[in-house]
Structures are given as structure tokens and as C-alpha cells.
UniProtKB/TrEMBL annotation:
<dbReference type="InterPro" id="IPR041561">
    <property type="entry name" value="PglD_N"/>
</dbReference>
<comment type="similarity">
    <text>Belongs to the transferase hexapeptide repeat family.</text>
</comment>
<feature type="domain" description="PglD N-terminal">
    <location>
        <begin position="3"/>
        <end position="83"/>
    </location>
</feature>
<dbReference type="InterPro" id="IPR018357">
    <property type="entry name" value="Hexapep_transf_CS"/>
</dbReference>
<dbReference type="InterPro" id="IPR020019">
    <property type="entry name" value="AcTrfase_PglD-like"/>
</dbReference>
<dbReference type="Pfam" id="PF17836">
    <property type="entry name" value="PglD_N"/>
</dbReference>
<protein>
    <submittedName>
        <fullName>Acetyltransferase</fullName>
    </submittedName>
</protein>
<dbReference type="InterPro" id="IPR050179">
    <property type="entry name" value="Trans_hexapeptide_repeat"/>
</dbReference>
<dbReference type="InterPro" id="IPR011004">
    <property type="entry name" value="Trimer_LpxA-like_sf"/>
</dbReference>
<keyword id="KW-0808">Transferase</keyword>
<keyword id="KW-0677">Repeat</keyword>
Length: 210
């Protein structure tokens, strides 16, 4: 079994560690976190070091692959971190075994998909996307890099979601919609029109608030 390290020992990192271990896909060997002391035990998993230490631990074969457990409030940081490591450290792709992902889909590196998600035909999920529990992504849609889907997001067919977007819990995006980069969607939002500029959108139908 491959050995996995997780960057971020906070809530999201801990949830990833739980699902990965419970699903028996990787052996989780430790966290890297700039805000937790080296050697601290978090949910029975050791903090191996800071982010600057990732390369050394990989060189010493402590882990085989890494995944990022940094949440939706820090997507630009996530992108920088991913780009700084991607040429030297292998990123894991974790798809919980309870998900249905059609064989025609393309799933990038560093992608993490929590239990119960359904992804239909010809969907593209680019690198470092995080998808929380029970999302539905219908056919021919694309989720671009470093985007975060909260629980139970529903995305219809032929939808394109940009980079570094955060889609709130239980939101809906109807078919043939394009959402720009750096868009944040509040919980329960219903998107029925194109979103062409970055910012925060809420409500049914969605409206720009800032
Ligand atoms: C496993 C997990 O937990 S993953 C994380 C899941 N979490 C989420 O999905 C959270 C999504 N976050 C939200 O929905 C938040 O309300 C945000 C980010 C949209 C806005 O938060 P804030 O910046 O604090 O905005 P604030 O609460 O001041 O609201 C601004 C206005 O938008 C409205 N508003 C805020 N959120 C929503 C919403 N989800 N739907 C409709 N209206 C909303 C407010 O009523 C307010 O309207 P008003 O100016 O007419 O009074």
C-alpha cells in the first residue's frame, strides 16, 4: 500500500486522513503543517514537519505521494503550494470507493473526492480539485484547478467552473453555465445565468453581492 502524507493538519486534513484510512487506499504516514509543532499527534497521526520539510521527507522515502488538506478559504495559497511541489513530489488522487465516476471521465492529480459523489460521462476534473460528500456532476462538465465543492453540490450538464472557485453547500448550477475563475457561491445558491466576473454570489436566483 502506498504511503500518503497530507499537507494541513486542520479539519480538512483530518477528514482526508480519516476517509483515506477507512477506505484502505493509502497508509497515512503524517501531516505537514506550519501551525502545528513537529511531533504533535493529531487524531493518532504525527505532524512530520513544516511545509519546507516536504521535499526532504520525500527524498528520504517517508512517503510516496502527497495530497493537500487546505480548505476553501485559502485557494490561492493552495494553488501556489501545488505549483511549487508538482514537479518534484507526486500528488495522490483519492476517490472514495463509494463514489461512481464514469470510466470516460478525466480526473487530475491531487484530486480528492469524498464519499457518495456521482460523476457522469465525459466530465473533466482538473488538478487539485476537492469535492466533498454527495456531490453530483452531470455529463460533459469541467471543474478547473484548485476549485472546492462543498457537500451536496449539484452541477448539471455542460457546465464549466473556473479555477479557485468555492461552491457552497447544497448549491445548484443548471446546465450550459460557465462560471469564471475566483467565484465564491454561498450555500444553497441556484445559478441559472452565466457568471462572468469573480466575486461572491448568493441566493435563488444567484445575485452578485461583492
Ligand atoms: C463540510 C463543510 O462544512 S464544507 C463548507 C461548507 N460551507 C459553506 O458552504 C458556507 C457557504 N457560506 C455562505 O453561504 C456565507 O453565508 C457566505 C460566504 C456566502 C457569506 O458570508 P458573509 O461574508 O459573512 O456574508 P453575510 O452573512 O454578511 O451576508 C451578506 C448578505 O448575503 C446574504 N447571504 C449570505 N449567505 C447567503 C446564502 N448562502 N444564501 C442567500 N443569502 C445569503 C445575507 O443575508 C446578507 O444579505 P443582506 O445584505 O441583504 O442582509
Amino acid at each position: 500500500m502506498k504511503k500518503l502524507a497530507i499537507i494541513g493538519a486542520g479539519d480538512l486534513g483530518q477528514q482526508i486522513a480519516y476517509h483515506v484510512a477507512q477506505d484502505n487506499q493509502f497508509e497515512v504516514v503524517g501531516f505537514f503543517d506550519d501551525f502545528a509543532a513537529q511531533g504533535t499527534i493529531v487524531k493518532q497521526i504525527k505532524v512530520l514537519g513544516k511545509l519546507k520539510d516536504v521535499g526532504n521527507y520525500f527524498a528520504n522515502k517517508v512517503f510516496d505521494e502527497v495530497i493537500i488538506g487546505i480548505g476553501y478559504k485559502h485557494l490561492a495559497f493552495r494553488e501556489d503550494l501545488y505549483n511549487s511541489l508538482k514537479n518534484t513530489i507526486p500528488f495522490a488522487t483519492f476517490i472514495h470507493s463509494s463514489c461512481y465516476v464514469d470510466a470516460s471521465c478525466s480526473i487530475g492529480k491531487g484530486v480528492c473526492i469524498f464519499p457518495g459523489t456521482v460523476i457522469d460521462q465525459q466530465v473533466t476534473i482538473k488538478d487539485d480539485v476537492f469535492i466533498n460528500v454527495s456531490c453530483t456532476i452531470a455529463h460533459d462538465s469541467t471543474i478547473d484547478r484548485h476549485t472546492f465543492l462543498s457537500p451536496r453540490v449539484a452541477i448539471a450538464g455542460f457546465v464549466n467552473i473556473g479555477k479557485r472557485c468555492s461552491i457552497g453547500v447544497n448549491s445548484t448550477v443548471i446546465d450550459n453555465i460557465n462560471i469564471a475563475d475566483d467565484v465564491q457561491i454561498g450555500g444553497g445558491t441556484v445559478v441559472i445565468k452565466q457568471i462572468e466576473k469573480s466575486g461572491l454570489y448568493v441566493g435563488n436566483p444567484s445575485r452578485f453581492i461583492r
